[in-house]
Amino acid sequence: MNQLERTLAIIKPDSFAGGHAGEILAMIEAAGFRILGMRMTRLSKAQAQGFYDVHREKPFFAGLVEFMTEGPVVVMALERENAIRAWRDLMGATNPANAADGTIRKKFGTAIDRNAVHGSDAPDTAAYELGFFFSGSDLA
Ligand code: GDP
Question: Are 108 and 15 in contact (CB under 8 A)?
Answer without folding.
Answer: yes
